[in-house]
Amino acid sequence: MIRRGVADPERMGLHGFSNGGGVVGYLVTQTNRFRCAVWVSGVYPDWILPTLMKTDATTYLFEGGANVWEDPETYVKLSAVYHLKNVTTPMLLAVGDDDGYFFLGGIELYNSLRSLKKDVTLLRYAGQGHGFSGAALKDFTARELAYFDAYLKAGTSAR
User: Fold this and answer.
1) Nearest-5° angle of CA 154, CA 35, CA 82?
2) In which residue ranges of the chain is pLDDT below 70?
3) What per-residue confidence (pLDDT) applies to 58?
4) How far apart are the first and last CA of the chain?
5) SS3 of residue 86 by DSSP
6) pTM for the full model?
């Protein structure tokens, strides 16, 4: 897209919801290409947590893969939370309080980024699950658009 002249390499941002949020969380640990990133109800930033929260000791990260005791390195490698020291991209996180493991992952990601003194903001919506509705959706949409404007509009230098 950059080579085609469609995307401005100085004004690129990320947005990901659920699995896409997990990708965003991991991607910002691998590159500083993006001016900002929005992570919404993202899949686990720590793949060990949901695995160990189940009582079935044979739970696998991927079908046919090793469990966490046989291959902990794979779980760590694929878990964004263990690579957050590399993050330079400002992040906006949004979670619903009723979103189970996704909520816990959002809090884990937020607290970890704050501990590392990274630029992070958390939006937490009471009574919301995996995705937002009503007033929460309206509020989130306005905040997300303002966030992208602050980092991506021509002439801005939020970073």
Assistant:
1) 170
2) 56-64, 155-159
3) 60
4) 22
5) helix
6) 0.89
Q: How many whole angstroms separate alpha carbon 77 and alpha carbon 104?
A: 20
**Burial of 73 (C-beta count, 10 Å sphere; 0-12/13-18/19+):** exposed
The 10s digit of each residue's pLDDT in 88-105 is: 999 999 999 999 889 999
Closest CA relative to residue 35, chosen from 107, 123, 141, 119: 119
> Can you list the domains of the chain with their CATH numbers?
13-152 (3.40.50.1820)
Query: For residue 21, what are the CA distances in angstroms to 8, 32, 55, 58?
Result: 22, 17, 26, 27
Three-class secondary structure of residue 20 per DSSP: helix
Give residues with Cβ within 8 angstroms of 22, minimum separation 6. Answer: 16, 42, 43, 44, 45, 80
- Contact status, residue 66 vs residue 58, Cβ threshold 8 Å: no
Distance (Å, whole) CA 150 – CA 57: 46
